[in-house]
Amino acid sequence: MTTKRLRIIVLVCSTRPGALGPAVGEWLTGTLAASADMLGADLVPLAVGDLNLPFLDEEEHPSTGVHHHEHTRRWSRIVDGADGFVLVTPEYNYGMPATLKNALDYLGPEWAWKPAGFVSYGHTSAGTRAVQHAKQVVTTLRLVPLGATVAIRIADAMREDRFAPAARHAEAAEGLLAELVRVSRALAPLRERAHAGAVEGPLPGSYARRLGPDDAPEVTVLQRCCWMEEALVNDTLAIPALHESPDEVRAWLADWHTTGLWRDGRLLGMVRTRRTGADLHVGRLSVAPDLRGLGVGRWLLRRAEAAGEGCRRIVLFTGSASHRNLTLYRRQGYVPLPDAPDDGVVGLAKTVPA
Q1: What proportions of the chain, in percent to the nearest 5, are helix, strand and coil?
Q2: Per-residue pLDDT tens over the stretch 111-139
Q3: What is the pTM of this model?
């Protein structure tokens, strides 16, 4: 499962002048700052009023993802880039504010498979009826509402004119954040599968997407698993993939085009490509040891070769004693390079049809 830092939007939902919402949001982000950092999450405060969203004015249905107005496109980018939400909401007449309902209704796929936690405030019910109202809506959008909530009775949280919640409210907020982070990470595979850049993989439930620097921890682990066998069969530990640190992996992930195959948050295999002159270089083709023999390596190799359009040839390297790899490459049409040095590494190439 990806270990990248999570982006959590703390959305203050009331736009009423003089509303308590901004004070609640400020208290919440300040209270949770240290815990969020330890949990690998960034809290991003945002107010509905700052979005300048008129009542829904898009002609296309939100499910299409087609947005004609810049205010909608901006809101779409914010929501699409988030990993979860904390909605700070008052209760108006037994329900959530119309401003929150409007903000939810603007979008569709951008919300899916992200957790939503609630911090409510009000008088008699501490805003809990607004939360129950909102949960009916967010589940329809495939947001996942948390069980943990923070409910604040205004009379209990005010000290003269200052908002000062009790210690129990801070404890509840810490519990909400911890649950939100766990659920967000658990839902990450569903979010990625639904992403426009993801494609169906060769195994049931698998999907492929481009890897980036945030995937360095998973790539590092996969490399250690796969290249230990290479080290044994080639009788050498001088294999870069065995020694690279996550920072070194992060650096080359930014430079190479790397495709990763995932299932349920686990990185199953990968391959990287890069053009050099008229050649397409293919490297780091790897498949988790328990999944070998299922055609995953061939599938990844074909994905890599698809990037070779316009190149003269495709070039790759493997250990001279890596007979499994050599058999795969030869069956796919690769032949040894004529002038490759005899240093325990075999270079192979395949001509790209014109």
Answers
A1: 40, 25, 30
A2: 999 999 999 999 999 999 999 999 999 99
A3: 0.74
